[in-house]
Design brief:
single chain, mainly alpha, 7 helices
Length: 128
């Protein structure tokens, strides 16, 4: 009788651990790019400057108003801290460089997939 309870307890433990592991795997495997982008923005500290919806007074426009911005421009902002067109315009570049807070360049610190996820998140905010 004592042996049977041990076996039953072991089986229940193994089943429980397997079930919990399966649920965690299923949830992580079924997260889309928008949620991954939101999680990444939070974990990297982006929302510290940009705020939840990117409506910080330090920004020229809120993240919810980026629906007209091209995907490649968003990619340049993320990777290089400013797009090429701004870098080439002395007045715009000067304004950004004089700002108290500047967008950091994430090139070499984020993978292409992570940048794609951030862009998906920004697009979702703009579409909301």
């Amino acid at each position: 009788m004592h042996f049977s309870r041990r076996i039953l307890a072991t089986i229940l433990f193994v089943v429980s651990v397997t079930a919990v592991t399966a649920v965690f795997w299923w949830r992580s495997a079924n997260v889309g790019p928008v949620q991954r982008g939101a999680d990444l923005a939070l974990s990297q500290g982006c929302l510290g400057c940009h705020g939840g919806l990117g409506e910080s007074p330090a920004l020229p426009r809120p993240l919810t108003d980026l629906d007209d911005v091209e995907r490649e421009t968003l990619r340049e902002w993320i990777l290089d801290g400013m797009p090429q067109r701004v870098r080439q315009d002395a007045e715009l570049r000067g304004d950004l460089e004089a700002a108290a807070i500047r967008m950091p360049a994430w090139r070499g610190r984020l993978s292409e997939a992570q940048v794609d996820d951030l862009i998906a998140y920004l697009r979702a905010l703009a579409a909301a």
